[in-house]
Amino acid sequence: MTSESTLFSNRWLPILLVAPFMLLIVLFFYVPIFQAFYWSFFLEQPFGGGSIFVGLDNFARVLSDREFWQAGWRTIVFMVTASSLAVLIPLILAVAADRKIRLSLPARNVLVWPKGVAGASIGVVFAFVFNPFVGILAPLNKAFPGIWAPGIDGTDAFITLIAAHVWGGIPFNFVILLAGLQSIPRTMHQAAAMDGAGPWRRIFDVQLPLIMPQLFLTLVLEFTESVTSAFALIDTITHGGPGGATTLLVYKIYKDGFSGYDLSGASTQTAILMVFVILLTAAQFLFLGRRINYER
Amino acid sequence: MNAIDTAIRAAAASITVKGLTKAYDPQTVVIPPMDVELKAGEFTVVLGPSGCGKSTLLQMIAGLERVSGGKILIGAREVQDLEPKHRGCAMVFQNYALYPHMSVFENMAYSLKVAGMAKAERAERVTAVAKMLGLADYLHRKPGQLSGGQRQRVAIGRAIVREPGVLLFDEPLSNLDAQLRHDMRVELADLHRRIGATTVFVTHDQVEAMTLADRILILNKGRIEQFDTPKAIYHHPASVFVAKFIGAPPMNILAVTGDGSTLRLADGQVVANAPLTGAYQIGIRPEDIVVDGKADGHAVKAALRFREDLGSHSVLAADLGGSIVRIATPFGMDIADRLELDLNFPTSRLHLFDAATGRAMPGALGAH
């Protein structure tokens, strides 16, 4: 048996090794989050210089604001549609690819690279791709003038955002799901084939149940990420418009805080958003995670 | 005998292989043209070292691997171009390949469900097979909660629940420990006696082959070395390859030279009288060598190297003209401190092989 003491003879060494990482999370995650929760109970002055404790006043103000609820609703719609598509499309691609391809290491690397592209860059590209005059849908506008107008039509703008988000999510999810599919032993397919199941039937009876851990992972990551990472896309493509149609909660927080200088309101909404994401993830683990069979 | 037994016995079909070949490309031929017929209800063990093409042969019968040429007939039906599900074969895999997300019941019922059988009938069949295999109490469990032997039984149950004409086994016992392997071997033999399915069993373990098979098909580099009963294969190996593959310890093979009247070993000692000239190989089973006794062969001297006492008998290893000869003797023979042994190879127990081709030359010594 390997006890911890044989691995680390010095009890401070493990702590020392973890310290740089801990420092980063504490400095850039826990401290700001704690700050946000703290400020949500105070009325902050926009240009510094003292604050007043106001108890739950900030929450009362935010929760009675119609725009907050609208932004919240848009966030949920975006989260559900964008993350479902960002898992479903790679899933279809992965199942198709698994049929023939044994992915080489370089190929997998090339596929993951887009994951490293900053959201803002994706946004700039898609602002161009979906531009009504020079983008890929421009011919459609020539045939039916005004049918594609993300600058005016809120739905079109929303679709653009979703498309950009899904595009950014495909590579990573594809690689994870494909890895899951490829780890299914070949004899499992053969056994199902001997049992009379055709390729389609095998997808639903064998492949999908066996990649549940990977599906669950991608879904949880997508749900949480879609809430936050939409910011870069909104800021570069739509700026929350037209008419606030693409103002999700993250973007509203940014605008309230840094354009409207309502620091307390922004902090309060951050706190609410944070709690929402935590509850959402907890719910996923509670209701989905338990049913997953990790055994192979 | 219950309904399942009868149904499987009735469904048992012969397998006829005609000019079957498998090649991945012209340079890598796994199986050169092969002709063989396995009788209905027969238990055939396909035996050979790894890479001899035995699994490929099995997969081609199952329909999991394409044939490169030739025909496979199950019963009177040509099946080489049919999907696996239309061939009437069932298979037990080496790693069992049970569906980890399904219960034992669901695993066994899956093929029936796919075939569209009514739920009540499905339950009836699975229950009958589970009872036969002693799995009745485990039907609700997942494979992960079962022991190796139980998983093995579920895999067998999943195969026979469809009442297949042909039952295929791909090294099914190699993942089990020694004791369990022995128990499962006995169970398999018993199961075959009861259900009488045409069975093809692939293994590299000669003990499994000897104990289970009606007939053993020995493959070497895709070619059939010998296809016969275990007894015939043990006593009349068709080649040096077979002689060395069967038996533990295997048959001793020694190079000899014939001078027209006697066969001499490399060191010049005469081992047998035979009217042969030129180079040959002789084979003798470890248990056929006589130590310190009178027999109808010539006496030769060998240097004892070591002995292994196995309880039921002892195995001696002796140096005879530069090659090691293994001798099985009764346990406790008083030879502990001796360096030189007087051996006698009874001529009636000698096997003669062609030095170049390795094929047996029955009758050339006057024996057999």
UniProtKB/TrEMBL annotation, chain A:
It is a multi-pass membrane protein. The chain crosses the membrane at residues 12-30, 76-96, 117-138, 158-181, 271-289. The keyword Transmembrane applies. Keywords: Cell inner membrane, Cell membrane, Membrane, Transmembrane, Transmembrane helix, Transport. It is found in: Cell inner membrane; Cell membrane. Residues 72-282 form the ABC transmembrane type-1 domain. InterPro entries: MetI-like (IPR000515), MetI-like_sf (IPR035906), UgpAE/MalFG_permease (IPR050809). GO terms for cellular component: plasma membrane. Pfam families: BPD_transp_1 (PF00528). Belongs to the binding-protein-dependent transport system permease family. This is sn-glycerol-3-phosphate transport system permease protein UgpA.
